[in-house]
TrEMBL record:
Belongs to the TsaE family. The keyword Cytoplasm applies. This is tRNA threonylcarbamoyladenosine biosynthesis protein TsaE. The keyword Protein biosynthesis does not apply. Keywords: ATP-binding, Cytoplasm, Magnesium, Metal-binding, Nucleotide-binding, tRNA processing. It is found in: Cytoplasm.
Amino acid sequence: MILADPHASEAFGARLASVLGPGDVVTLSGPLGAGKTSIARGLLAALGLQGEAPSPSFAIVQPYAPPEVRMPVLHIDLYRIEEPDEITELGLDDAADDSVLLVEWPERAPGWWPDALRLGLEMLPDGTRRLTADVPAGWKDRWQQI
């Protein structure tokens, strides 16, 4: 899928939000500036967040909970994680059952979320972004709705 600009990335995030539920994990891979946070912002806005969602680069985990959004979401940015063991300290296992996990830079945590919807973004020479998806079995029907 080609995303023409940040608005298209946010619109994709909004469509994705329409099929999410607690316990879902979505990972976003791609270089700096590829649009990972734009997708996250669109998703969070569609879930009811007022205002712009900050990038969680420094906080690592940015939680959102009702009534701010219609379901709990943890927006996670693993860019600053240097060792996979550091992820255990974040306590994500406890939140995974009742929250949506939206994970940027998942390659810093290999093997952590095997059933995640894995999205990749690539910057193209014309300034657009190519979105690719690795859609696990549990996502097949929902992916068709996006």
